[in-house]
Amino acid sequence: MTESFRAYHPSTSPSALQSKGSVRLGAPDDHAAPMQILDESRGPFRIVSITAHSHSAYSASHIVENHWHAALEVVATLVGHSHHYIDGREYIAQPGDVFVISPYSFHSVIPDITTYVAYPDDTPVAIVLHIGYQYMDYLIPNLASSVFQVRTDDPSLREREAAILRELLHLQNPSVRTVYTHILEGSLTNELLYLLCSTHLQPERAAISTSRHKHIARLQQIIEYTDEHYTERLSQQMVAQKFHFSKEYFARFFKDSTGLTYMDYLSKKRCSLAAQLLTSTDESLTSIAQNCGFSDARGLILHFKKEYHITPHQYRKQQTQHTD
């Protein structure tokens, strides 16, 4: 154990955990930010605090879009509610829930709007821990052919899992850190990993594994294609035909897998790019609309206001005032 632990502790990094600090729900800078991948060369773990930010124009649409990564993800919900879509299944997170997301699982999160507005700014909403795949592969036999159960029905186990995450987050406070804090961090994370392996880890049956991987692969292909072409004139019908779906089945498949309709997903991608262009360029709304895949400025305004509850002009003015 000591050898494997040291192998992931470069001398340049005194902490086992790569702390990203506090991420504000609904903060404009966070909405457009890409998912950060755990860099195991800096350490095998990373802890993130998600906090409320009620005054952002993005508060109604801050969604963690579909993504996947090699790291194991453990999420503790502290307050509020959210919908997690994991490998095509929906799970509703409530305060006290701890969800475990297996490596390479396709997942997204849609928080309840009340999560943003019902709590003061910087109220901790959730804690997220990533544990690196290489680190786990060293410790866990047959990891590649196993899957973690998303949650346990044992309330005492959930409480201990959440308590470990809270303690790990507390240790990121500079006022409590010492040169030996990384030892405690490693101990707590390994305890959590032990609990997860003892109660959540199970071998995948071949038939289920094949079906799940096929489902994920198809969804990944659709998402990747959309992310590459969303600035073009895409429609649900066009994408359904490309991937050999009927229009009706495609609509149901995408909504069941992600929690969003395909056109809502497309709109969010386009509006996110529009928000970046509004703040980084002086382009007209007509030009931005065309560059983002909207048919005209009117379409941009309608979708942007639906997403962010503010017009593009108001958003540009607001952001300009913030930078002055």
Automatic annotation (TrEMBL):
The keyword tRNA-binding does not apply. GO terms for molecular function: DNA-binding transcription factor activity; sequence-specific DNA binding. InterPro entries: AraC-bd, Homeodomain-like_sf, HTH-like, HTH_AraC, RmlC-like_jellyroll. Residues 10-21 have a biased composition (Polar residues). Keywords: DNA-binding, Transcription, Transcription regulation. Residues 1-25 are annotated as: Disordered. Pfam families: AraC_binding, HTH_18. The keyword DNA-binding applies. Residues 220-318 form the HTH araC/xylS-type domain. This is Xylose operon regulator.
